[in-house]
Design a protein that fits this description.
The chain is mainly alpha-helical. The chain has one domain (2-164). Helices cover 81% and strands 0% of the residues. The protein is elongated.
Length: 165
């Protein structure tokens, strides 16, 4: 009976992690990784061939989870700068991500774009027309960060399923 509970918890965490990739209020990759960790620590991480989940696999995915989570905050700022934004727009995109956390879920979607736009207009002396491109770069960064999280959580869910059944 306990095996079913542990498998259920791991699968639930994997699903919540995937949902968290698109709902910014939920930290998707860390939750998916905890699903893998549940299987590992309760010794239920065994695939169909009888192989158990290795510590190495768990640590590799821990590193990937941390990298993806950090990149999710950095990529909007980077793409803002890459799309011609000034350092002000780049900083505004980062500030928009952080302020947007308080107005989730919509705030996290439009926060980087709005932060880049406002800072570009206010501090770099560009007009609204010139400032829209860096703002769109910030939005592209948000989309890229979300895709990175979805890919990582999808793979973690794959491992959860493999080691459950």
């Amino acid at each position: 009976m306990m095996t079913y509970v542990i498998v259920g918890i791991a699968i639930f965490l994997g699903i919540v992690g995937i949902i968290g990739c698109v709902l910014p209020v939920i930290p998707g990759p860390p939750i998916s990784w905890v699903g893998m960790m549940v299987l590992y620590f309760w010794g239920k991480g065994t695939d169909s061939a009888g192989n158990t989940m290795s510590t190495r696999l768990l640590l590799i995915w821990c590193g990937i989870m941390i990298a993806v989570t950090v990149l999710d905050y950095i990529v909007p700022s980077y793409l803002t700068k890459a799309s011609g934004g000034s350092k002000y727009a780049s900083r505004g995109a980062l500030a928009g991500v952080l302020v947007g956390l308080f107005f989730a879920p919509l705030g996290i979607i439009i926060g980087p774009m709005l932060g880049a736009f406002i800072c570009e207009v206010a501090f770099s002396g560009k007009n609204a027309g010139q400032s829209i491109v860096p703002a769109l770069g910030a939005f592209a960064g948000f989309v890229c960060g979300t895709l990175l999280k979805l890919i990582a959580c999808g793979f973690m869910m794959y491992y959860i399923v493999i080691y459950c059944f």
